[in-house]
Structures are given as C-alpha cells and as structure tokens.
C-alpha cells in the first residue's frame, strides 16, 4: 500500500502483532515494521507461562481480558499455539508467604479470577511429586502455558491475511511527527511511511523510540535464564511458581520440562543475549529442590533473550503524555507474554476509538512522576 496508513506499528513482538490484527479487524489500514522476524525477541524466547495469578493490581484488568483471548486463539488466528489451561500453582515457603497468597486470593477474586488456597496436606495429596518443604500454595485453574515461539508469528500471519502490511527485516532509522500524523524512515526503503497514528511496541528498544518524541523513561534490559530437559513421562501438571520468584517450572505436552531462574547477560546494542553456566546450574538445583524426581533428568540446553525492564517492574501501556496520536506498550519486565493479546486489542481501541473499556490507568507513562509501585513477582 502507498499513501497514509491509519496506524503504523514499530515492533513485531506479540503486542505489536496483536495490535495489527485487532486494528485490521476494525477495518483500519496498518503497517508494521520489525527489524528482524516477528516474535524473534522477548515474545518468542520467554518461558511460556500464561498466568493471571501473581500480578500487580494495575495489570489485572488487562490480564483478565487477555485470558479470554487466549481461550479463543483457534478461532481468532487459526491455531491455539499449544495453549493449555494446566493451571498455575504458586507455592508458599512459610507462613508469611501464605499470608501474602491469601491477600492476593482476595484481590484476584475481586477481579473475577478464582484461586484455591491449599495447605501442606492439600499439596501432598494433589501434587505428590513436589518436595514436602512448602507451607501451602495458591492454585489458579484458568492459568496455563503456551509455546512462545508460535504465538507472535501466528498473530502476524493472521494480520497479514486480513491485509495488514507486515514488513520484516526493516530497521527504523527515524520516526517523527508530521502534518497529519507521523513519518517513519527505514534503512532498506527510500519511501517514507506515513500514518495517522503511531504505536511503539519496540520491546527493549521502546524507550529509545519514545525518547524521539520527548517521552522519557529509564528502560534497562534483563535476560531471564531458562532451560529445557529431555522429554520424560507426564509428571508435572500445573505451571509452577514460588513466592519470591526463585524458580518456575512447567512440563510441555511433548514431555520436556522447561524451567528458569536467575538472569543471563544481554547486550541491547549488539542484539546478543546468552545464558550463564553458573546460573543454569543454580536453576537446575532449584528445580530439583522443588521437584526431586527431576534429579536424573538430562538437561538439553539453556537460553535467554533481551527483555526491557522499567524501574517499577511494570510496563508502559497507553497514550503518549506529550504527543497526540502516539501510543506506547513496552517494558514488560519479564511478564508480558500473557498480556500481549489484550495489549494489542486495547491499543487498537485507543488508536481508532479514543478509549478502551479495559482499565490501563496504572500503566500510564505519567506514573514515573509519582512514587513507584511495587510489582508482584511470579
């Protein structure tokens, strides 16, 4: 397409690809530009947990809406991306953790999210493969897991099938306001793209895009260290987490066990990230401490990716405070995979209708002029 697009999107992660799809479903003309391949960064190399439990209150309305989209992926994008509602079990190490889980249980209930509080006896009866070191836990049956390598590309294909202009291998070298909207210059195309609305879903590079328009926030990078084992017989039912976030574990339908803990290293400028051997060994020890039967299972590989993190551990989602028609969604700080589908739906609504029924007020960029919130970790 030539001429002026209704919406231009910078960044082909899950949030950006979902924005493209939902905007096309509303009839808007859309162009999305991605430096590499859609879903190649944080959206495609994360742990794959799909959870509502353990979230900050500012994310809950968005998370709730996203869960509904996860449940209808097959009809929306033609594939379920291996999404399964295995449940999410968050474990308590002690009485203080149990008190935290009970308080969070009440918060989630107020948002229509049901969780079940379990004591140590319940854990032993329902999940006998767990170590007996835990005081109890909280189980959310609606939560689960999906294959992150499949999701963003599937949203991109669905958007393209509806007529979205999805441009991969295109690096943005300039983005500016112009009469009637925005202009975008690419490294491999002399034609300047123009659009009435601009959506910044550039992940770990989102703050750099925002700064070009006078929106400033300190975005650092993180590289969650993750591992996968050989396939084994079915053992672990739900997606497992722990208060304090020390270890997270899930088993895929294919039998492999995926787990993570700690951080690798990331170089945002060189587009390089790598896991660390010592962190991998610590993660393996933590996994065995949680599920002792993993002790003699073969570890196949470890990996990481480049994820943007904001000072309070929560993302920015919403309109620019300084430029009309500009919208941001970045800095998901290691827990944006579940949110991505709804982020796109909300951004499309904001661009085309000026409002969304889903509350995102606690994720506004203007909060960085306020005392920081404390994010709840998985």
Any descriptors?
8-stranded mixed sheet, alpha+beta, FAD/NAD(P)-binding domain, 378 residues, 2 domains, 4-stranded mixed sheet, D-Amino Acid Oxidase, Chain A, domain 2
Describe the structure.
There is one protein chain. Strands 1, 2, 8, 9, 10, 11, 21 and 22 form an 8-stranded mixed beta sheet that branches. A 4-stranded mixed beta sheet has the order 5-6-4-14. A 4-stranded antiparallel beta sheet has the order 15-16-13-19. The protein has 2 domains: 4-49 and 149-217 and 312-369, 3-Layer(bba) Sandwich (FAD/NAD(P)-binding domain), CATH 3.50.50; 86-143 and 221-309, D-Amino Acid Oxidase, Chain A, domain 2 (2-Layer Sandwich). The protein contains 10 helices and 22 strands. α1 (14-25) runs parallel beside α7 (148-161) and α3 (57-70) packs across α10 (340-353). It has helices at 14-25, 42-45, 57-70, 73-77, 95-110, 120-126, 148-161, 206-211, 277-290, 340-353, and strands spanning 4-10, 30-34, 49-50, 88-92, 116-119, 136-140, 144-145, 165-168, 172-178, 181-186, 189-200, 220-222, 224-229, 239-242, 248-251, 257-263, 265-267, 272-274, 299-303, 307-309, 316-319, 326-330. It is of the alpha+beta class. A hairpin with a 2-residue loop joins β10 (181-186) and β11 (189-200).
